[in-house]
Amino acid sequence: MTYKSTVVTRTGGPEVLQIVENELRPPKAGEVRIKVLATPVCRPDVAVRTGQALYSGTPLGKKPPFVPGYAVIGDVDAVGAGVSTVTAGDRVGVLTMVGSYTEVLYWRADRLIPVPTTLDPVQAVPLILNYIVAYQVLHRSAKVERGDKALIIGASGGIGTALLQLGRLAGLQMYGTASKSKHAILTQYGATPIDYHTQDFAAVIREAEPQGIDAVIDGMTRPDTIQRGLSLLRRGGTLVSYGEPASFGDLFRVLATLARTKLTPDGKSCKLYGTSPYFLGKRRPFLEDWATLFHLLQEGQIEPVIAARFPLLEAAGANALLESGQVTGNVILVA
After folding, report:
1. Average pLDDT, whole number, for the chain?
2. Using alpha carbons only, what angle is made at residue 174 by residues 169 and 177, rounded to the nearest 5 degrees?
3. Which CATH class is domain 130-274?
């Protein structure tokens, strides 16, 4: 028997994604075999496919051919020797970094995320990456409190819309940057929209909030954006940046800004957020927060914005749509 996966054959555009067949095998000891139900198409998928230099030396820096895909929800199909934590039929999530554009996924049994079977996999799979980032940026990094004023830089994508929903739930007064065509979604969640094409977000915030704001959540991770964001914070405010710098030069400048902020304290803090602690074994906070997010979804308090669904093996079209800049919310591949 065989199953199909989508493979990056070489660095480049969506056209380098090709479908291949693989032999189905039993799971190894300590491993499970998962029938994939849904996987999101995310910005890191694009970065690793296009071979951005910043990913060299990381798990995302694999050389072609490889299967991309950062997150997945599926049903356990079979378990290997020594696996006692899950059984066939259990629904699980996986934060893969790479590997989820596939009909069948083999994964370590000790790195599975329990997922309630009552949830729609399409609605639940954005929680594995986009919502965990948004939730932890707000509550573990920025430590926002009800009534805080926050600016979300990049408020219309998968993480941006998650920030809007979770920010509204947390009682924040929000401002958000997005192109004008996407302002409706910001207004829907109670945020004041700022058109990054025609408006200077720093000038808008200074005029609206002359005393400063409590948090800046930055999805761009550009040195100039971080500097401008820091200038908007009141004393005690926090900027958290969760995006990927465009180059090593940008990364060094961002790290230099972070160091200066720590060395010359002015009551403001600057933090970088990433999911690397999960892969380094610090999984407990992540598992706690995923459980919280699944509960919020179950109770109808959050509802991921699904911009488009594609069949699981039509990843090339889904990637092209994501890169078009026309997406509000999440693009999902569905089995």
Report:
1. 94
2. 125
3. alpha beta
The residue ranges of every structural domain in the chain are 2-126+277-334, 130-274
Whole-number Å distance between alpha carbons of 186 and 159: 13
Residue 315 predicted with pLDDT over 80? yes
Domains 2-126+277-334 and 130-274 agree in fold = no
Tokens of 285: 């906070």
Distance CA 168, CA 300 (A): 14
Q: Is the peptide bond before 65 cis (omega within 30 degrees of 0)?
A: yes
Give pTM, 2 decimals: 0.95
CA 10 from centroid of its chain's CA atoms: 24
pLDDT of residue 168 exceeding 50: yes
**Which class is domain 2-126+277-334?**
alpha beta
- Residue 290 CA: distances (Å) to CA of 95, 119, 162, 209: 11, 13, 13, 34
User: Which amino acid makes up residue 211?
Assistant: Q
Distance between CA atoms of residues 142 and 234, nearest Å: 13
Flag whether pLDDT at 2 surpasses 50. yes
